[in-house]
């Protein structure tokens, strides 16, 4: 049996960058909230008193703190992840969602269409099959070449016509 495996997990450096960004925003809004001594006008439409502006800044600080914590959890889950995409002669097995441990196995004879979707510079491989749709995100694979190789393998083994 000819089996090809691709590592499939989020990039650690990207989540470290996201954590740094959200941490910086948390610090900024906390500083604004704790030192606020004036009101706030938003787009000349909404005027907030000093108290209301302070509450708004505290809300944003809390929201950014929650996003920082969630990003840290995703980073830890990604680092601990052993997810991979496995392609054999008869089927493809891939995680159902990004960092979940649940995998879905789709036989190549069940695949009706394969499409590469580009959305805001992000590529997705959409595999349509009798049970629904399996989506593989390019950024979760180690390299762009791995994404291209994976796409070519799926198209070849499913025996479908694919237009790039």
Folded structure, characterized:
The chain is an alpha+beta fold and 164 residues long. It contains 3 helices and 9 strands. A 4-stranded antiparallel sheet has the order 1-4-5-6, covered by helices on one side. A 3-stranded antiparallel sheet has the order 7-8-9, with helices on one face. Strands 2-3 form a two-stranded antiparallel sheet. The protein starts with a strand and ends in a 6-residue tail after the last helix.
Helix count equals 3
The low-confidence runs, each spanning 5 or more residues with pLDDT under 50, are: none
Average pLDDT, rounded to a whole number, is 89
Helical residue percent? 40-55%
Could you tell me the strand content as a percent range? 25-35%
Can you write the helix and strand succession as a string?
EHEEHEEEEEEH
- The SS-based structural class is alpha+beta
Report strand order across the widest sheet.
1-4-5-6
Radius of gyration: 22 Å
Number of strands: 9
- How does the overall form come out from the CA principal axes? elongated
Distance between the termini: 29 Å
- Biggest sheet statistics: 4 strands, antiparallel
How is the topology of this model organized?
Layout: E1 4-7, H1 12-35, E2 40-42, E3 46-48, H2 50-80, E4 84-87, E5 91-95, E6 103-107, E7 111-119, E8 122-129, E9 132-137, H3 144-158
Antiparallel strand pairs: 1-4, 2-3, 4-5, 5-6, 7-8, 8-9
């Amino acid at each position: 049996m000819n089996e090809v495996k691709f590592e499939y997990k989020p990039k650690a450096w990207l989540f470290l960058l996201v954590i740094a960004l959200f941490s910086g925003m948390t610090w900024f809004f906390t500083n604004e909230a704790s030192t606020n001594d004036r009101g706030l006008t938003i787009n000349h439409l909404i005027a907030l008193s000093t108290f209301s502006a302070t509450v708004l800044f505290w809300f944003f600080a809390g929201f950014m703190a929650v996003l920082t914590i969630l990003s840290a959890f995703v980073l830890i889950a990604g680092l601990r992840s052993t997810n991979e995409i496995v392609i054999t002669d008869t089927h493809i097995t891939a995680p159902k969602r990004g960092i979940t441990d649940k995998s879905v196995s789709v036989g190549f004879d069940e695949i009706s269409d394969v499409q590469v979707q580009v959305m805001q510079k992000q590529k997705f491989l959409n595999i349509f099959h009798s049970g629904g749709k399996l989506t593989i995100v390019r950024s979760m694979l180690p390299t762009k070449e791995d994404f291209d190789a994976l796409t070519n393998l799926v198209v070849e083994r499913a025996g479908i016509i694919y237009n790039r």
